Amino acid sequence: MDCFRIEGGRRLEGRTRVSGSKNASLPLLAAALLVDGTVRLRGVPRLRDTDTLLELLAGLGVRWRRSGARDLRLEADPGGPTEAPYAVVRRMRASVCVLGPLLARRGRARVALPGGCVLGPRPIDLHLRGMEALGAEVRIEHGTIVAEAPAGGLRGARVRLAGERGTTVLGTINVLFAACIARGRTVLEAAAQEPEVVAVGEFLNACGARIEGLGGPTLEVEGVEGLGGAETVVPPDRIEAGTLLLAGAISGGRVRVEGCRPAECGPLLSLLAASGVEVAVGPDWFECRPWRRPPRAQGLVTRPYPGFPTDLQAQWMAFSCRCAGVARIREGVYPERFVHAAELVRMGARIQIGEGEARVEGPVRLQGAEVLASDLRASAALVLAALAAEGTTVVRRVYHLDRGYERLEEKLNALGAAVTRRPDPDAP
Ligand code: EPU
Question: Ligand 1 in contact with 124 (CB < 6 A)?
Answer without folding.
Answer: yes
